[in-house]
Prior knowledge:
mainly alpha, 2 helices, 82% helix
Amino acid sequence: MLQSGKHKSEKELLLDRIRRAKGQVEGIEKMIEEDKGCVETINQIMAVRAALTKIATKILAQESCKIQCQRDQTNFEDIVNKLLNFK
């Protein structure tokens, strides 16, 4: 997905997903107001649930990467300090 010649950031992609899920929830609200069928409504609810699960998984994966990068940076700095102080 391109935006003005640039790739969208992870944050923008997550916001796109959450907005899509929000639209689905609004659709479910309308289905209930219009007394749509149970199966049709439940299918939409399950679709939103799956979408939110994917969003949560992506957020957890990003946070996990941040933690790992911080840990790697700390380890890298420790190694550099040990090498520089090696006598």
